[in-house]
Design a protein that fits this description.
Layout lengths: L1 H7 L2 H25 L4 H21 L1
Helix pairs in contact: 2-3
Length: about 60
């Protein structure tokens, strides 16, 4: 079962998803910081939503 799971979840694909997610979060945070500090609550919500979506993607893969 473990081998099948490993083949079903390639390391490169997982790393690609992680890299894309991190890149999106970092880009959004940088943009938010450039916009101003008043948007911190939106940053927190966006990060939380992004993490939730990321976990859902991992579970669906």
């Amino acid at each position: 079962p473990e081998d099948t799971g490993a083949r079903r979840h390639p390391v490169r694909s997982s790393l690609g998803v992680v890299a894309a997610t991190v890149a999106l979060v970092v880009a959004f945070v940088v943009w938010a910081l450039l916009v101003g500090p008043d948007i911190q609550r939106i940053i927190v919500r966006a990060v939380v939503v992004t993490l939730i979506i990321f976990l859902v993607i991992l579970f669906l893969r």
